[in-house]
Design a protein that fits this description.
alpha/beta; 5-stranded mixed β-sheet; 7 helices; 5 strands; 37% helix; globular
Length: 189
């Protein structure tokens, strides 16, 4: 499981309070990143993460998807950032649909979600028209940080614990003076 997928799972488990099943293998080298269930109302979610911080490939786009271009090394990254890629390869591919059916996820009874580092306006419009929610990864990280900030809880989930420690470190600026140095005059971390 990729780091971004772990962060998304931590978000839906600890912030949203949903139950999750990660990394479901499908035939044909396909995979479902995350299935989630809201136990309060029974809502179901099929969540796919496509997060890149590369300036050129960070945003989800509405550019045309061409499956043949996935085989071209220099075209693959841009093709994987298109809404069409997610629709064809992650949500509606027959191997994925068969795996979803094993968990009683049938068309129309769950919400499809793409997690990405931003999306262009047209991609958001087309996603909405296709019944797909788009979540911004940056907002997810901020919400996790806000939900755990100031808590003295020990989190056993490594991903959540890392974000918790990072949040505490950012918020605990009074913990040391900026000019703390050791006996040799080097800054103390």
């Amino acid at each position: 499981m990729e780091t971004t997928e772990k962060i998304v799972e931590a978000y839906v488990r600890y912030v949203k309070g949903w139950a999750t099943i990660p990394n479901i293998r499908c035939p044909g080298q396909k995979e479902i990143d995350l299935l989630a269930l809201d136990p309060r109302d029974g809502s179901r979610y099929h969540i796919e993460s496509g997060v890149s911080v590369s300036q050129k490939f960070s945003s989800l786009t509405a550019k045309p998807f061409d499956k043949d271009l996935l085989r071209v090394r220099v075209q693959k990254p841009s093709q994987r950032r298109t809404l069409g890629y997610f629709l064809a390869e992650k949500f509606t591919h027959p191997d994925v649909q068969n795996a979803l059916a094993r968990y009683n996820f049938a068309p129309g009874n769950y919400t499809k979600v793409i997690v990405t580092w931003g999306a262009d306006d047209e991609a958001r419009v087309q996603a909405r028209a296709a019944g797909v929610d788009v979540w911004d990864f940056r907002r997810i990280v901020r919400e996790i940080s806000e939900s755990v900030h100031g808590k003295r809880t020990y989190f056993t989930d490594d991903t959540l614990r890392t974000i918790h420690l990072f949040s505490r470190a950012l918020g605990d600026r009074d913990g040391r003076a900026d000019d703390d140095v050791d006996s040799a005059g080097a800054p103390v971390p």
